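Example record

The entry below shows one chain as it appears in the dataset: sequence first, then structure tokens.
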Amino acid sequence: MARFTNAFGNRVEGGNTDVVMGFLTRSVRDHMVAFIAELCGTFLFLFFAFSIAQVANTSVDPQSTNTLPDTSKILFIALGFGCSLTVNVWIFYRVSGGQFNPAV
């Protein structure tokens, strides 16, 4: 555990969150950190996934009227969603458990 001095000059022990959120109790601070990590992770997951879907569905020829689904585009979008979720879980699993639910 690292030791820090808070804004009032008192020595506190804990992680890096003690410096910024030292006025909160330990359980509230842990929930706040998990909430912020969950929020950031879900945002990044959806941002990257929808960006990949937009790139896949952008047509090179604006005059094309092809309405049939292209299996390579569907596979690209599915892999994009999976890779986006995998990267975000790998980044945030230590803090929020890697449980990203964009429906919540």
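Notes for this example: Helices lie at 17-20, 26-57, 71-96. The longest helix spans residues 26-57.
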